[in-house]
Amino acid sequence: MGGILSTVFGSGEEAAPGTESEPSRVLKFSSSARWQLHFNEIKESNKLLVVDFSASWCGPCRMIEPAIHAMADKFSDVDFVKLDVDELPDVAKEFNVTAMPTFVLVKRGKEIERIIGAKKDELEKKVSKLRA
Known about the structure:
Blueprint: H1 2-9, E1 26-29, H2 32-42, E2 49-54, H3 59-74, E3 79-84, H4 89-94, E4 102-107, E5 110-116, H5 120-130
Parallel strand pairs: 1-3, 2-3
Antiparallel strand pairs: 2-4, 4-5
């Protein structure tokens, strides 16, 4: 069954470009080093970064996932990243994540907003407002 779940929900690995019929704009990191490289790169720009802290066992996280992918497609000027708190507990601790899902909105390496819970409408409004 684990193989089926991995196929449906993803294995937490970064997707190589062109490996899916419709590549996701949501990046997934399962390595702290790779996450840190990406974070260091993006904090040099003025681009909005939405970090989705979730867990494979979290029902609300799975329920909001299609909405996150839709937002990533809609707001192509925003970077969306999904991090599993069980795979990257050090990153979750660094961002003081205590509940899932938690969405941390970051610009220039600084947290500018935080949404705790699967609040799709609130997240979409804040991303729309803060992306400029």
